[in-house]
Amino acid sequence: MRVCVFSALPSKKIKKMFLRNNFVVTTYKPDIVVSYGDSGTFLSAERNYPEIPKLIVKIKNKDLPFEVEESELERIIPKIRKDYYKIVSFPKVETEFRKKKLLGTNEIQIRNKLPTQAIRFDITIGRKKIENLIGDGVIVSTPIGASGYYKAAGGKFFENGIGVCLNNCGNCKVKSYILKGKEKIVFKLNLGEAQLAADNNPLILNVREKESIEISKSDKKTNIIKVI
User: Fold this and answer.
1) Residue 64: its pLDDT value, please?
2) What pLDDT does residue 117 have?
3) Which pick of 59, 123, 172, 207 has the fewest CB atoms within 10 Å?
4) One domain for residues 210 and 110
């Protein structure tokens, strides 16, 4: 089995663990990718090796049930070698804007470019249209991102579907919505300056007044290794 250890941290020790268990350690066409670091490392690993199963390794303080700590690796690596694991898949969210396609493993955000100025916008969530909102924007999240920025902005936690959180909108009655199917989210900027971003992707696009952006659940998946 071919494994890539993806990390900005010193990872020689981890690579040796896999080599001792007869893995081929490589960056070329790996069967699995080990994300060693923080949540940003995982998002970068997914962007560089999309849909290849990821083993998420934290130095300590794991947050999600499928994450493992570095101290567990000696026990876990032999299990992976013997196929004692399963793949847990989560949907991504996607948008295409000005011929640029963005995929979100955690979320796609549209927010005010200037933190001192709110934006005014309309949003359609499935069949529900909400007009003349004033706030920081919107966060469209996957279940993986449900405990991140989405939750911090006041979104209601969920495990299935995709979540839509209206970010710091003082004139909205409901803070967040959960979509279970393929409903689309359409954002229209009425006034102000906004930016479009996905996860920690360095590609950030400016959004002008009167422009619309459509966001939806993607057919692409994030595949996570969960050791049995």
Assistant:
1) 80
2) 95
3) 59
4) yes
DSSP labels, 199-220: TT-S--EEE-TT-EEEEEEEEE
Q: Give the single-character DSSP code of 145.
A: G
Whether the CB-CB separation of 167 and 130 falls below 8 Å is answered with no
The pair of structure tokens assigned to 125 is 């969530």
Note whether 66 and 130 are same-domain residues: no
Other C-beta atoms lying within 10 Å of the C-beta of residue 103: 18
CA atoms within 13 A on the CB side of 131: 0
Q: Are residues 75 and 102 in the same domain?
A: no
H helix intervals, the chain? 12-20, 39-48, 73-81, 149-152
Predicted confidence at residue 169, as pLDDT, reads 94
The string of DSSP letters for 74-117 reads HHHHHHHHTT-EEEEEEEEEEEEETTEEEEESSEEEEEESSTTS
Domain that holds residue 180: 92-219
Tokens of 38: 């923080």
Q: Which residues contact 228 (CB under 8 A, 6 or more apart)?
A: 79, 84, 85, 86
32 and 145 inside one domain: no
185 CA to centre of own chain = 17
Query: pLDDT of 165-221, one tens digit each?
Result: 999 998 888 999 999 988 999 999 999 999 999 999 999 999 999 999 999 999 999
Look up residue 69 and give its DSSP letter: E
* Mean pLDDT within 152-177: 93
